Amino acid sequence: MAYKLVFSEEALSQLRKLDNKIASRIIEKLESAIDHPVRFFHRLAGREDYKLRVGDYRVLVKLLHNEGIIFVLSLGHRKNIYRK
Predict the structure, then answer these.
(1) How would you classify the pairing of strands 50-54 and 57-64?
(2) For residue 77, which of 64, 63, 58 has the smallest C-alpha distance?
(3) Quick one: CA dihedral 14, 82, 41, 70, positive or negative?
(4) 49 CB burial (10 A radius; 0-12, 13-18, 19+)
(5) 5 with 72: CB under 8 angstroms?
(6) How far, in Å, CA of 66 to CA of 26, rounded?
(7) Which domains are seen in the chain, by residue range?
(8) By three-state DSSP, how is residue 38 classified?
(9) Which helix (H) or strand (E) holds 50?
(10) What is the pTM assigned to this prediction?
């Protein structure tokens, strides 16, 4: 079952601020994860969210298995992404 990608406003804003080369790598990786998201995403300890590694960048998502949706919450450099 192929999942559908849905971006939050925050994630879209963060994606627009990135360099085009990095942004395209992130989009490519997300699109390759659509068919088998369990292979690509790892659960964060103590949270409901999942992460996807793309070089030095991380994409935080919520996997909605029942609806078949990968909801992208936020993305950014690994040194800043986990701070809230």
Answers:
(1) antiparallel
(2) 58
(3) negative
(4) middle
(5) yes
(6) 24
(7) 4-77 (3.30.2310.20)
(8) helix
(9) strand 50-54
(10) 0.91
Amino acid at the residue 3: Y
Are 22 and 59 spatial neighbours (Cβ–Cβ below 8 Å)?
A: no
CA angle 73, 26, 76 (to 5 degrees): 50
For residue 2, the model assigns a pLDDT of: 86
Distance CA(9)–CA(79), nearest Å, equals 21
Torsion 70-72-73-79 (CA) sign: positive
What are the tokens at 52? 């996807």
Instruction: Identify residue 83 by its one-letter amino acid code.
Output: R
Reported as a single tens digit per residue, the pLDDT across 28-46 is 999 999 999 989 999 999 8
Cα R_g (the chain), whole angstroms: 12
Instruction: Match 């040194």 to its residue by tokens.
Output: 79
Closest CA to 41 of 14, 59, 65: 59
